[in-house]
Amino acid sequence: MKAIAICGSPRDAGNTETLLDTALDTIKAEGIDTELIRLSDHPVSPCTACAMCYKNKDQKCVISHDEFNEVFAKMVEADIIIIGSPVYFGSATPEIMALLDRAGYVARANGNLLSRKVGGPVVVARRAGQNFTYAQLMYWFMISDMVVAGSTYWNVAFGLRPGEVKDDTEGIETVTRFAENLAWLAKKLNG
Under a CB-based contact definition with an 8 Å cutoff, are residues 32 and 183 in contact? Predict the structure, then answer.
C-alpha cells in the first residue's frame, strides 16, 4: 500500500508540511509506504475548463507545461491521499485548489479514478479559517467518491511561524489519530 500527502503551501518546511509529516510518520509506522509531495516543487496551473479530459479519456490533462500529470498519476496509484493546506484569506491556497479542480475533472472523465480511495484533509492557520478550509477540502473528497477517516476532532491546528504548529498539542494528537485511522481503514478495505 502507498500513502501520499500533498502539501498546498507555497512554503517549504512550514506548518502544513509539519502536520503532513506527522501524519506520514504515523502511517509509515503502520508498515505503509509514504511520500510527501510539495506543490511548491511541483507547480500546477489552474483548470481552463477545456473539457479535453472528457474527450481524450487518457487519464491525463492536456495542459502540459506544469507537473499536474505527474502528481495526478501518484494520486491514482495511492491507496491513501491526504491533502494539506494553510488558510489563506479564509480558504485553501490557490495551489491546492488548482490541483484538486483538475484532478477532479480528469478522474471523473476517466471513470472516477479516485473512487473509494481513503483520505482526508489537514488544515493549519494562524488564528481562524480552519473550519471553512477543512470543509472546502472535505467537499472535494466527498464529490470524488472517496472514503474519509475521522479523528477525535477536525484535522486542524494553529501556527504562524514555521514549527509553531508543534506547540498545538491537541492539533498534533488529532492529526496523529487521523493518520492511525487512515492506516487502519486502508488495511481493512485492502485486506
Answer: yes
Which pTM was predicted? 0.98
The whole-angstrom separation of Cα 23 and Cα 137 is 17
* CA triple 133-139-143, angle to 5 deg: 155
For the domain made up of 2-190, give the CATH fold: Rossmann fold (3.40.50)
**Given this model, what pLDDT does residue 191 score?**
81
Q: Which amino acid is at 19?
A: L
Name the residue among 70, 55, 139 with its Cα closest to residue 104. Answer: 139
**Where do the structural domains in the chain lie, given as residue ranges?**
2-190
Distance CA 53, CA 109 (A): 6
Closest CA to 146 of 168, 172, 116, 124: 116
SS3 187: helix
C-beta separation of 191 from 38 below 8 A? no
Residues lower than pLDDT 70 in the chain: none
Q: Helices in 110-168 by DSSP H: which ranges? A: 130-143
